[in-house]
Amino acid sequence: MLSYWRQLDSDSAWMRVGVLLLGLWLLVTLVVPLGTLLSKSFEDANGTWVGLNNYARYFATPSLTDSLWNSVWVSTVVAGITLTLAYVYAFALTRSAIPGKGVFKALALIPILAPSLLPAISLIYLFGNQGLLKDLLFGTSIYGPLGIVIAQVFYCFPHALMILVVALSLADARHYEAARVLGASPFRTFMTVTLPGSKYGLISAGFVVFTLAITDFGIPKVIGGRFNVLATDIFKQVIGQQNFSMGAVVGFVLLLPAVIAFVADRWVQHRQVALLSGRSVPLVPSQHTPRDVGLLIFCALVAGAFLVILGMAVWASFVTRWPYNLNLTWANYQFENFDSEGWNAYFNSLRMAAWTAVVGTLVVFAGAFVLEKTRGFVLIRHATQLMAMLSMAVPGLVLGLSYIFFFNAPGHPLGFIYGTMAILVLNSVAHFYTVSHITATTALKQLDSEFESVSASLKISVGRMFKRVTVPVCLPAILDISIYFFVNAMTTVSAVIFLYGSHTKLAAVSIVQMDEAGSTAAAAAMAVMIVATSAAVKVIHSLLTYQLRQKTQAWRVR
Amino acid sequence: MTVPYLDVNNISKRFGHLWALRDVSLQISPGEFVCFLGPSGCGKTTLLRIIAGLEKHDSGSMMQMGRDISGLPPSQRDFGIVFQSYALFPNLNVRDNVGYGLQGKAWSREKRQVRVDELLSLVGLSASASQYPAQLSGGMQQRVALARALATSPGLLLLDEPLSALDARVRAHLRTELRQLHQRLGVTTIMVTHDQEEALSLADRIVVINQGRIEQVGTPQEIYQQPRSAFVADFVGKTNPLQVQWLSPGRFDWHGIELSCEHTSPQSLGEMFTLALRPEDIVLHAHDRPDLQVSNCYPAQVQDLEFLGAFCRVRVHLPINGQSLVADVPSAQAARMGLTRSHQVFVGLSAERMQVFGPNASVA
């Protein structure tokens, strides 16, 4: 073993140490906690091994299995509606000549900046018992599947849209010219060229939305009423009944559809061959008035609905006493009057998001670098890569629950971080690992693979090259990763709801609690604070990126 | 030969069940310019990367100036390298790219400045010192890469298809410059290429590699005029491979007609051989047989003409045995003869230029 390390030069040795450290990090923050959760689901309340008893009990309890069915059908409906809307919207953005594409795109991405709780709260103000537009529902209650579906479509829309825009913008004009020359009708062209070309994007977006919907906790919690789903069941079992074993079982049941969706998505991506060669001709959408007018109206309606939902929350947060006194006031922002932690929760969220951005970016980028650039060491690298991808399949609630079991176990060497800011940061980094990892890896893959060889021949260490070349060239990607971590850490509720301590309550958690206590207006105000913060950070990020591009445009070839 | 600068002994390398290199041995003298020539996938780049330490060989050893470098990582070997992709750092300007390797205690700011200026003028890029790679043409980028590789004065310069990504005119120009640079600096150089013209014009010695084995090592003249195998004959320059049977010393049967040749070693009757004859060694005569004493002269019909500037490549068909040959005729002569398609001519196959390759020799 020692001789194995001796034949490496110091650079290769350090790179391998880096890979091992990353592997260890992912083991501790992701894999081992999940393993603990699994073993917990086979134990009773006293920690005695009971085999599949818990699972048997789960499937024998109708109230629990009903939730499973509810979760599956609601998520399927959400996926169907979101895909349809997002596909048309993406088509309008990429394949039509409608005006204001930039504005429409920006508006459609609003939901990413908001916690999932926000659309639920807005819907209550719009269609709830004292809702503004309650009569439009003709007596149907918004509390339940209807509210969940509408709010989740809002919440999932931008994720589907981003995937579909990419899929639809990859078009080869030559295929369309060929179809036209061969006399195909627009409908036939759509069915034979456009749809097959974006097939993989559709499948991928479908899985992403389904997973987001089924693992979301905030929306069913706020607007689900008595309609139970898996995510709320976990919460009830663990927080309500302190039944950790059953919580673990439900966690695993929830993990299952997410993992199936994840594996299926991987499989589809593998089958996807590059449809575009370097020689393809980009498609420039032509004007076609009837189609463009139709699409413009559609986009305006969708974007308008988003603005209404966001605007409703903002308005509600300023109203004195809904619906009796509509005078505007700052009173709802006096969080001390509604929640014991008051504004502290917001500042905790800020600190947590900032730490997650810093720690997450460092770990992800350095980790992706050593994984990508280490030579040899194949087995360990593949295992680590797999762990990095696994995080995507783990719902936040499941990860949070497994952290309780892992870090809170008596005598655990890392037990001291339980209830501190550190565990929240670790958990958020692990929860949002995969997308950041893919961003970093993609950026690194674009670097010439011979940079390392050149540096080695010039006796320049890998560390120096990393600092002098890799980081400057990848800076835009690094900024993207940090903003992704920040916004997600700011808005997430599912992963942290089990983990906050008495001094580390977060803004999203206090939204849930204030809503539960009936202070819906204050909950809306806190949601607005989160959106405003995310939006501000996003604007700063855009400015920074723009400046960076200006400064480096001499060498950056686009 | 003096003590070799680089001594490669029985290097083998396998990728899975595929042999990339098999028992490759090679000695390179100090100051030599050596080209590894071969078709893509023959193992030439793998050999270069093994010499650089970027790839690990399975067995064999390498000595550089008497030092065993077989197990050393690239950073502990002494070489500079230039890649086909240039691999210039996009965020550093020309000056910083060239000075990239000039780090550490040995290089003060002034010393570094002087060295970079020297290198830039060496490759003729002094005026572009503050530009970024993306603002330079391909040829200029490759010169930056060359200057960067030479900056630390390595004892060995490795060039991995450095000219392949450039267009024809720039390539020819840079080829001349490379040759002059080598003559001026005298650094031992190994260049990998699949372009035989490049190898012939640049190298002191050419190493022809095919399917992981060295086919022949020799000067460009040796490689071209005395190819040791049918593969080399065909890969370097153009050749007409003729499948023949041995009749008697110096006489072969080529699909029913008799060819004489200076190759006289005794063989058994009917054994199969390959005769290789270069297009320029086939002579076309305009009218009837000018001289009956000339052997290997047969009537033929012009099938196809390809005008290539200085000469015409003419495909002729021999009605006697149904075979075809390719001959290169100087353009002036082609014009004098008034060669056109279906033109009747006589072909003469030069007996002294014919190369004979052993039984079962195949031409790739």
Features:
heterodimer; A: 558 residues; mainly alpha; two-stranded antiparallel ribbon; 24 helices; B: 364 residues; alpha+beta; five-stranded antiparallel β-sheet; 9 helices; 20 strands; 23% helix; elongated; disordered C terminus
Q: Summarize this, please?
A:
The complex is a heterodimer of chains A (558) and B (364). With 558 residues, chain A is an all-alpha fold.
Helix content of chain A: over 70%
How many H/I helical runs of chain A? 24
Strand order of the largest sheet of chain A: 1-2
Distance between the termini of chain A: 46 Å
Q: How many runs of DSSP E, i.e. beta strands of chain A?
A: 2
Number of helices of chain B: 9
User: What is the CA-atom radius of gyration of chain A, in angstroms?
Assistant: 25 Å
- Give the topology string of chain A: H per helix, E per strand: HHHHHHHHHHHHHHHEEHHHHHHHHH
Major beta-sheet overview of chain B: 6 strands, mixed
Which stretches of chain A are poorly predicted, pLDDT < 50 over at least 5 residues? none
Strands ordered across the widest β-sheet of chain B: 6-7-8-3-9-10
Cα(first) to Cα(last) distance of chain B is 32 Å
Structural class of chain B: alpha+beta
